[in-house]
Amino acid sequence: MIKHALSVTRDGDFAQWYQTVVAEADMAEESGVRGCMVIRPWGYGIWERIQRLLDDRIKATGHENCYFPLFIPLSYFEKEAEHVDGFAKEMAVVTHHRLVADGKGGLVPDPEAKLEEPLVVRPTSETVIGTAFARWVQSWRDLPVLINQWANVVRWEMRTRMFLRTAEFLWQEGHTAHASADEAREEMQRMLEVYRSFAEDDLALPVIAGEKPENERFPGAVATYSIEAMMQDGKALQAGTSHFLGTNFAHAQGIRFQNAEGELEFANTTSWGVSTRMIGGIIMVHGDDDGLRVPPKIAPWQIVIVPMLRDQPEDEAIVDYCRGLQGELAKLSALGEPVRALLDLKQAKAANKRWGWVKKGAPIVIEVGGRDVAGGNVSVLRRDRLYREDGKLDSRVIARDDFVGAAAALLEEIQSGLHAEARARLEANITRVDDWAGVEAMFVESAAKPGWADVAWSRPTGAALDQVVERLKALKLTIRNAPVDQGATDGACIFTGTPAVERVLIGRAY
Amino acid sequence: MIKHALSVTRDGDFAQWYQTVVAEADMAEESGVRGCMVIRPWGYGIWERIQRLLDDRIKATGHENCYFPLFIPLSYFEKEAEHVDGFAKEMAVVTHHRLVADGKGGLVPDPEAKLEEPLVVRPTSETVIGTAFARWVQSWRDLPVLINQWANVVRWEMRTRMFLRTAEFLWQEGHTAHASADEAREEMQRMLEVYRSFAEDDLALPVIAGEKPENERFPGAVATYSIEAMMQDGKALQAGTSHFLGTNFAHAQGIRFQNAEGELEFANTTSWGVSTRMIGGIIMVHGDDDGLRVPPKIAPWQIVIVPMLRDQPEDEAIVDYCRGLQGELAKLSALGEPVRALLDLKQAKAANKRWGWVKKGAPIVIEVGGRDVAGGNVSVLRRDRLYREDGKLDSRVIARDDFVGAAAALLEEIQSGLHAEARARLEANITRVDDWAGVEAMFVESAAKPGWADVAWSRPTGAALDQVVERLKALKLTIRNAPVDQGATDGACIFTGTPAVERVLIGRAY
């Protein structure tokens, strides 16, 4: 039996396994500030890769980056009733702008420095960006406005979990204004597709893109679409959302323009976002019992070279050999970019370094000892195939030149292999279910990893939808989305028995 | 006489000119939130270039990026008395985590959701990062810790000015911990040099690196160094700082390690930062009466192609020609990177577009009309040499191939030309002054752009320093820094008459 690097397995306790990977892979840690985490170098390095690759896609679709204030006056929120209802319960509020000594050696907010109007720490920026749009847009010629921002936001969550749900998180939020509802809907779909292809191609994260049901819409939206990823415990993670806001926010913020006929119209707006939550999804989709496996496209370091040093004179030759190797690898190009190769010269035992990089999930770890130098070889460890069939570590001695010649292709193979593995698991764990009894059977208490049910429904609204939501809630289920990629639907709604209009995915979720 | 693009000149009203450039170059605008600005696409694009280039330098010197919480519990601040004294007067304080209806259609902070311990919105992160360092550092083997963070910070300034002084601003803050004071001082110097060379080489911003006097130290620091740039009105802008914190924060946060001999020691720490303030400096150093001039290395677009369209069938050929040109330029490399060329296809008059790009300061604007297409030419406008001697716009018709062949060298010439111009101005406006009467004469009320005085002093401390500071304050002057690059000093201190130990620069400042 294989002795894995982590003290807990996915099958043993998935939640505990997740926390262990977050810690052991140097991703993040508790900060001491309630609900806020410290994102450590390896975790932040992955976020930087996500930023770089997604930002390129956002710019390629014509959007420009801006920066808007962290603080939003209360009055901005009051204008959009649904929106404020959705967020009021979890907003951090700044009320003072100065501290003063409390006379007991401590500090308190200075009562003399109370703000006239409290400021909310942005939970999302529709209101403050909409206010800017109202200034920017006068004529149809000013449209569309296509803006994105990379920022931190705060939602005061009661139960937090690293990356998945934190009081402060990092994200990008796109905001656009258009001359017509059709154009705005097109934009919403375009960005949904940007997210889908980014997740699949860059993160090796298979997702289902689709429309959220009415009860799961973003507060103030006319339609909300999402990409949903399946974790290894079968639960869903909403990994990105794209909203069509109609003219709701334009009415609240006064975004109006003169159309070509000289009439005043309200603009149609959209918003869309992806956050550090995505990193939680990467861990739960690609991790294994030895830690994280980072897809090469987003790995801060794709190839890590560990010299096996022994405090001997021959160490120098080993380090020289490794430097030469690093230089050769850095000249290569894989997955459309220069290869990122690190020479790990930290003061630590080579075996600890090796397992450190395995737990972090560097795609390829190269070990170089005196014997490798003498033979012109390297010892190669692929993170996606760590063990041989007999359970021993699959470290292979390869001629250095052969490895360098094959390295780019190997990284591409690892990227596509991780994707194929996750894609197969997603598909294997979506079950077509024909009636409510089938759903109940699938999600009985004892089911280990039930995955998602794919069911037909009639898209009920109002009270009828509330009933559906309640029935699902009793089984801890939610409707994830109605996939955009689906054929015609026939048969009956599993909830109401009336003719079905579309298929939706049902599952447990993070 | 030249008719310039802006309604106000630098000589006419420098402060008003600055605000005009910020607005007309599409850099930033008031947000409606007190003291906070909206950074618009061109301004944010320059910030993105700054981030990219400075981040490369920070990583090349061995630092890794992390992310720490926005909120800092009050108790973290109370531990370092000088530090909290320095910042308590300008901290935004979060006291509630929920809003509730006020019964009059509005919202108020929910009294039921008052935080037990108020949270400060970070004005700087020594305390929260130091707390993490205390967890990370146990042994000398864990040192040095070399961390950087890109983040927003808030300092509640009473008088704000776009980029130069805003309640919220963006910056990077580096934080490091070391086994010895010498090592930490070396780090402080290393990062000062990173800032100096970054400013000179990437921003074309000549600066003087040196040590701040005791009264200008960062709250809690043992030594503070800065880079100081000279604006076109002769005032100084502190454009970056690097601090040696000794063991002050290590004591407050408990950053201790076991040294090689097994004894417990406190770590020595540093911090260093550069902010969006830098953009204000770029405007005030490189701008002219036609707007901003962006050095090519940090220009979001280095070459902008404006097709002269007339709603005629021939428009299509012009756009095709421009696309081809853009493709050729994008294949070039200048200043170590691929050339960034934009084809501006916005719906607007070509003349308005031209002047828009002039005001934004794109280094090269190419105009293409039907005649250019027919002749295989382009019309080239260099932002650094906009007018001919006779005051007419210096737009030159050049064979397309010749322009493409020369474009990379031209960008490099513009970069070094802007630097040389600013460097010459800095040097011409530093005046060696031998006594206090000379300082008074130099900074009389009527002096237009007095620049800086270079004087010898005895580096007084305590009450003697206070007296110096008061004398300077009466003339609205401050000591900027004691340049690191200076020879031996002789003569007497201009303030005390005692033997001088170093030379310092004195000037008015932003």
TrEMBL record, chains A, B:
Major localisation: cytoplasm
Coiled coil: none
CC annotations in GO: aminoacyl-tRNA synthetase multienzyme complex; cytoplasm
Record's keyword terms, sorted: Aminoacyl-tRNA synthetase, ATP-binding, Cytoplasm, Ligase, Nucleotide-binding, Protein biosynthesis
Cellular compartment(s): Cytoplasm
Entry keyword annotation includes ATP-binding: yes
Alphabetical list of CDD domains matching this protein: ProRS_core_arch_euk
Biological processes per GO annotation: prolyl-tRNA aminoacylation
Root EC class: ligase
Boundaries of every Aminoacyl-transfer RNA synthetases class-II family profile domain copy: 29-295
Catalytic activity: tRNA(Pro) + L-proline + ATP = L-prolyl-tRNA(Pro) + AMP + diphosphate
Gene Ontology MF annotations: ATP binding; proline-tRNA ligase activity
Database matches in SUPFAM superfamilies: C-terminal domain of ProRS, Class II aaRS ABD-related, Class II aaRS and biotin synthetases
InterPro entries reported for this sequence: aa-tRNA-synt_IIb, aa-tRNA-synth_II, aa-tRNA-synth_II/BPL/LPL, Anticodon-bd, Anticodon-bd_dom_sf, Pro-tRNA-ligase_IIa_arc-type, Pro-tRNA_ligase_II_C, Pro-tRNA_synth_II
E.C. numbers: 6.1.1.15
Domains: entry comment: Consists of three domains: the N-terminal catalytic domain, the anticodon-binding domain and the C-terminal extension.
Family that this chain belongs to: Belongs to the class-II aminoacyl-tRNA synthetase family. ProS type 3 subfamily.
Subunit architecture: Homodimer.
PANTHER family named among the record's database cross-references: BIFUNCTIONAL GLUTAMATE_PROLINE--TRNA LIGASE (PTHR43382:SF2), PROLYL-TRNA SYNTHETASE (PTHR43382)
Function: Catalyzes the attachment of proline to tRNA(Pro) in a two-step reaction: proline is first activated by ATP to form Pro-AMP and then transferred to the acceptor end of tRNA(Pro).
UniProt xrefs under HAMAP family: Pro_tRNA_synth_type3
Protein name as it appears in the record: Proline--tRNA ligase
Species of origin: Sphingomonas lycopersici
Gene behind this protein: proS
